[in-house]
Amino acid sequence: MTAPVFHALPRLSIYLHIPWCEKKCPYCDFNSHAIKDGLPEEQYVDALIQDLEQELPKIQNRKVNSIFIGGGTPSLLDARSINRLLTEIHARLDCIVEPEITLEANPGSADSGKFKDFLDAGINRLSIGVQSFNNDLLQALGRVHDGKAARAAATAAVDAGFVNFNLDLMYALPGQDLEMAVSDLQTALSFKPSHLSCYQLTIEPNTVFHTYPPQLPDEDISWQIQTSFETILAQEGYGQYEISAYARDGYACRHNLNYWRFGDYLGIGAGAHSKLTVHDKVMRSWKVKHPTDYMSKANSAARIGGCKFSSAEEIRFEFMLNTMRLNEPATVKEFQQSTGQSINTVKAELQRAHKDQLLDFDGARFMTTELGRRFLNDLLQRFLPEPKPGIGDNAVAAQIELP
User: Fold this and answer.
1) What percentage of the chain reaches a pLDDT higher than 70?
2) Helix, strand or coil for residue 214?
3) 323 band by pLDDT with thresholds 50, 70 and 90
4) Which residues contact 354 (CB under 8 A, 6 or more apart)?
5) With pLDDT > 90 as the criterion, what percentage of the chain qualifies?
6) For residues 365 and 331, is the Cβ–Cβ distance under 8 A?
């Protein structure tokens, strides 16, 4: 097998992980920890800066296109910490003019005053995890906020002056029907967000819901909710640019688009993952997961929890895993530039998927069809390095863990 050959480096984003929440949600499989003995805010920001300093040789002279502060609940931090963190990043990295800088926030962890302080500190995009506005559904999800707090958070973003903000909504929740889901969407739309993320609740391994699974709506109801959302959001002027992402013109999330277009990203923080193109290899690495462990090791090589180089087959699959989520075509040129390989390595699979009406493929571009989006996991299995019989839906998504 010929090794990949990269003629240009992909775009670069920075991801910073804040691993604390007020409470661990029963469906969450992210590296997050409930606050028990106070938040070691200053110590953790010190560790983030030390971690970044250690990583600089890997990304020297590369421009940064976006910064995303995720978690956990980053809005638990004080705006002064966010300001310090962004100041230190800008002092060390070369960012494009007006990079997109996102902060995740949960209802109850900030008000309009704190949101305004975040805006003044340099955050220009908020992503608020409301999940639902229905008290019963929020309780079923184990969320610490109620519908009133969810509405207050969306109002606070508007009052603080954020033009670019996202609201997260989950659907196919325990006890939810189509009418309840549409009601949640209509409430979200009343705040006129620039972006909406609408995604189905899935039961992930190593979660409370996996051990004690709730009863979820069946596949038909879930599909009705999804198609209803697509119709309503299109009528309201939101373009669906990815399976779960909708935006007004000019407000698609640049950071997430970089993931889905197989760009590079540097992960800073406890458990954060990186994907970096180094010479003619794609390197994936991750930091130690526990915050206390991470803080003690942030200034040394011991902060690295693991590292591996992707094989040519894995790179091809990873490209497909990401780009096929988008409602835009990927070109043969993009495939060859991003993977360093000839399109001939996947041409037979592309042609078979086209014949099965899962893909549109004209020899120069390829894109999932409506049928392909509905059965995306089945489509992606065709590109797995070593297809295995009986692989589950979640197994495909679990092949690659994004930050």
Assistant:
1) 95
2) coil
3) very high
4) 360, 361, 366
5) 89
6) yes
281: CB partners within 8 A, 6+ apart:
4, 309, 310
Which residues of the chain form CATH 1.10.10.920?
312-403
| CB 127 within 8 Å of CB 165 | yes
- The letter for the amino acid at 367 is M
Do residues 105 and 127 lie in contact, with contact meaning Cβ atoms separated by under 8 Å?
yes
Q: Are 303 and 331 in contact (CB under 8 A)?
A: no
The SS3 assignment for 266 reads strand
For CATH 3.20.20.70, list the domain ranges present in the chain: 12-259
- How crowded is the C-beta side of 394, counted as CA atoms within 13 Å? 9
Overall residue count recorded for the chain in this entry: 403
**pTM listed for this prediction:** 0.93
CATH of span 312-403:
1.10.10.920
Token pair, residue 241, equals 């640019």
pLDDT in tens, 248-260: 999 999 999 999 9
Q: List the structure tokens of 229.
A: 């959302």
User: The tokens of 26 are what?
Assistant: 């029963």
Q: What is the CATH number of domain 12-259?
A: 3.20.20.70
Q: Is 72 left (phi over 0), alpha (psi -120 to 50) or beta?
A: left
pLDDT tens profile 190-232: 999 999 999 999 999 999 999 999 999 999 999 999 999 999 9
